[in-house]
């Protein structure tokens, strides 16, 4: 049964200022771990512009063993991407599949890890074996994280949209209003969908990206506020 949103519905936009690329990744992990500690874990998406960035983010998330990670990237076929999105949505809105393409969780029997891993030589993501029943149950309890590039978002079929998440982290800022709008439409849905729930966007802003951030402020769908100290306030405060 669906629950009522804890705070005012609609789109709420925040930013987190970071000094450099290394600090950005550390801040992302701190943000997600803080959300995980709340009583109502969120299902979220992380948007990257470049494949190398996606690989780095996914690798860092997998190292924590704290999230069920679904990675959508160009090495997957169209069918594999569709299956990954379908399984992500199952994890977000109902009983999770025992093992999903592109999901990562606790080690399976025999010590292997499930889901995508980052190749040490090429930095590419590789699909690995499934989970046993015990590990699958553990994965079902983990927050679901979808990591994707903009190219793959654009290629998703309309019958799988919107993906449906409560939080979007723009790890790399959208360079245009068109790209920003596509992220919002694909992940949150249209205006009617956003008015029915609390949708939160967090922009990760490096010191050298102030110009891109100012441009984003000009076309964002709502005012971009500084991220509160208590991250849970993003979902409850009347901002």
From TrEMBL:
Helicase C-terminal domain residues: 24-92
InterPro entries given in the database record: Helicase_C-like, P-loop_NTPase
Compositionally biased tracts (Low complexity): 96-107, 115-124
Region (Disordered): 96-126
Pfam (any one): Helicase_C
Protein name: Helicase C-terminal domain-containing protein
Organism expressing this protein natively: Chlamydomonas reinhardtii (Chlamydomonas smithii)
């Amino acid at each position: 049964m669906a629950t009522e949103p804890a705070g005012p519905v609609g789109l709420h936009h925040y930013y987190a200022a970071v000094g450099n690329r290394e600090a950005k990744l550390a801040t992302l992990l701190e943000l997600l771990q803080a959300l995980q500690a709340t009583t109502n874990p969120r299902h979220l998406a992380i948007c990257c512009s470049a494949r190398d960035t996606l690989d780095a983010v996914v690798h860092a998330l997998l190292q924590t063993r704290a999230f069920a990670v679904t990675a959508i990237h160009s090495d997957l076929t169209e069918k594999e991407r569709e299956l990954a999105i379908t399984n992500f949505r199952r994890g977000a809105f109902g009983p999770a599949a025992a093992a999903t393409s592109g999901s990562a969780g606790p080690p399976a029997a025999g010590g292997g890890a499930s889901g995508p891993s980052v190749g040490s030589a090429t930095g590419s993501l590789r699909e690995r074996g499934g989970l046993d029943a015990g590990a699958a149950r553990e994965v079902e309890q983990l927050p679901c994280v979808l990591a994707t590039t903009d190219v793959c978002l654009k290629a998703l079929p309309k019958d799988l949209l919107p993906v449906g998440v409560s939080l979007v982290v723009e790890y790399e800022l959208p360079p245009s209003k068109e790209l920003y709008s596509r992220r919002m439409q694909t992940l949150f849905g249209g205006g009617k969908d956003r008015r029915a729930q609390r949708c939160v966007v967090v922009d990760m802003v490096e010191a050298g990206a102030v110009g891109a951030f100012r441009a984003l402020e000009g076309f964002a769908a709502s005012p971009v506020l500084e991220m509160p100290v208590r991250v849970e306030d993003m979902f409850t405060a009347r901002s």
